[in-house]
């Protein structure tokens, strides 16, 4: 607060001006109780003007820093409500405390209009005192807890004034000084430097400070609103405020810049509102003048006419003055701060600029102001770009404003279009909305090619973006060509033709833009904008049922297929009411929305119950259409069959599905039919007996045919004499039974026994085609799972399971497992891969038997032995990684290549599940990890997820697989290097070594940012890596060169994951392997990996080779008479004591617990300074240009070690 003028005379006062001695300290905010603490009255300072506080003695400056807030008691009555009860002592005390503008606005207890009216009244009595109160308000809102002094500057020359505008730091007292010009004063703000980094009111968290920001913005708006009829045009108020805010915006202190910029921008917005009101006043004044002038005889004037003319001219002059005020604030604040390094300040500037452009286009809607918005479209902060687009959208929504934006469209249209692919989804959505307005309201601004590119976003994963693109597509696709007008009531007169025309446009769009095949996503994007077209079930079905009246109305086969897909997708969208997979989670529907959805679903069900059997009969020969039609019944409201008495249509549906099962052998159709039967066979449904009987009758027919064929097969010389037609018929029925066995329990028909017999026959004799073996494998697996399910249910229902049943099931599973193992080497690739997939699934099932269930289930438990694991990993290597470099694999068409990748992903995922569920040894993953880099594009996600899952199971063992993988790759690299006699070429300069190093970097990234959680794993990797680098037989001419020294360059990729104290411990361990002879001979490029690894541990960047040996002597050898016992407390609560002997190296075994017991440390001094992280760089508050600071600012990673290290000196004799 700036205190009242002292009654003492000021020797520097000139020209009869009042005293210029004003000083105070800001209050301290208390967020918890929502009130502001004030200093006692005894703390009020009544001293003279402090002209240059930096020249005071240190004692005086310290006194200035520590003094409390002065309490100005004058005009307290203005702060009280007139209706304040006298007997309410608590409220009276509260109102007495709120004596400054900052306190009143911060508390928010009074209406802002009454607060401003009180201030205006005080301004009219003593404008200097009121202005100082307002200045103090802006200073306090900046969070300044320092002292403010003021002095007159009228007597100073302009050069002297500029010299006083300084901002400096006094190192002796730790105080920061800021000089600001606020006519007619020069303000000096003094505050402690240590308070600069504290939060200020505008950015402090909590509801209190959020409300304060709203009150602050409201105060600035109401201030201008209430002053517009009195003191706004006195030439004194706005000059002072403008100079003050302009001075604060030039400060290096973020709080001053942010607060002053927000205040200035809100003031301009309020002035825009004032000038809008003036337009009405000018119009009214002009009308009154014209009326009075018409009444007055020509050539005569009267007092009333003169008064109206004077008022008219005053009203016409006011907009000019207000525009001058806005220009001063704009140039003094916006131009200086729209490129500020702080994003919040840039956001304030651009957000208010958007409102000015829309509210007062006569002044702001020109290229001089629009250019700032265009420039900020390139801002690095997403929120700034978003505000720019939102402001522009407000302009493009009004066609009358667009004609002024021709140059802006030419300059920045391409940038706006490109922002639809912004990395921030919200920005991309806003850009798409803006492009849509440009397309609809600005003719020929967006080209047709750019529009076509926008249409593709209907398939975007982010649903809001896809919905906006769908709106654009509907408005452009369904509109009539230019020059044509749709006849009135055209939709009602011929609804069929109207819908037909629109559907044809939609289908043509989908077929012509064949870049995507997912109709479901197209329907979801158009769902909110298609005007009921996709929910007009009667029209959609009639287009397929009825024959077209004219030839041009007929659909082609491709168009019919797309229409059927659209119908199926629309049915799903209606029934589920949520977007498809990949477009967000299910949205919660309100009760009204849920009711509407249920009504629409019932209407859809009634329609398709009637027409679906007819459509299935019409398109029964078309596999694709039938498959899509069979997706519809799963979304039925099945109670409609009984409620609507539509049982005859159920009979028709079952009849058609039975015909489809007998007619088709396509797996998709058969599985769709099986799923429909499964849905209709719900035991709680009234139609269950009827559907169940039809299903059993169908299964009986298929089983009878199959048993007859299988009997003939084994009667003809053990199957060797049957013809191909017989085998083909048997394969077709087996496919159908397999499809139904997937969703239905067919155990009582004993189909699994027959399929096992077929598989055994192939195992012993061979000769059966893949079309028979693949469904036989699948059907056998389903049969075993259904039997296991029955046994498990008996356990749940506490029905005793006979030992006979379990033994029989165990024998069948063992038989099927052995068959799958033998089929791994089958000559048919499809059969071998199917056997592998089923074997993996079966092993997962068997490995978890007898754990939580009855002990009898242990008969079923099985874990693969080492031989089987080796065969399976070899199968993965051959079928997944072994074909990547084959010529025929590279030359395949894109569609075939994608199918091959999909098949390989399934195989790899199946085996990785075995690793993740501990069915096979974790070390087998080494062979998979080796191909991480080469196959990153196709299988990188699977391998990375495997690493994460195994790390969750066992961190230490998972880390060991990574280091073993790197070691084996390194050994292969060295073997190739030595076999090629590449002595002249450096080991670490080849492409294969670089790929190993890159793989290590990728492995390091999988550990994430939690260093505490991974510290034991990282330590083990370094320990294993160092041992590997220095052990083994040297193959180099230099006998003392470690055999695998270059491996240190690989494990250096993990050094950044070590905690600071662990880096020193790893460095001590490394020193134990460096002998004295190595220190004397470690010269040349061969020793460079050792130096690089050492640098990654201690953080030096010196490249001089001469420092390699000396670097190992940086820490002096320890005193042999003492050792240091380090007690380390880990996150799991365990305590580890590490003795650091100084004589000999002791080998310690690798542990898999949470302690760092991997190293035999050499004695070194460990101090508390080794544990504390170094402070990060200080962030700069301001930069000359907006783009300079983001590159220079680095967010330091702050990790809490959560560990206690006590260093205790122990006499060696007492150990």
TrEMBL record:
Any single GO BP term: chromosome segregation
Keywords in alphabetical order: Cell cycle, Cell division, Chromosome, Chromosome partition, Nucleus
Biased composition range(s): Acidic residues: 1194-1215
Composition bias type Basic residues, residue spans: 73-82
Main location: nucleus
Domain of life: Eukaryota
Function: Component of cohesin complex, a complex required for the cohesion of sister chromatids after DNA replication. The cohesin complex apparently forms a large proteinaceous ring within which sister chromatids can be trapped. At anaphase, the complex is cleaved and dissociates from chromatin, allowing sister chromatids to segregate.
Subunit structure, as described in the record: Part of the cohesin complex which is composed of a heterodimer between a SMC1 protein (SMC1A or SMC1B) and SMC3, which are attached via their hinge domain, and RAD21 which link them at their heads, and one STAG protein.
Name under which the protein is recorded: Cohesin subunit SA
Organism: Sarcophilus harrisii
Gene: LOC100933824
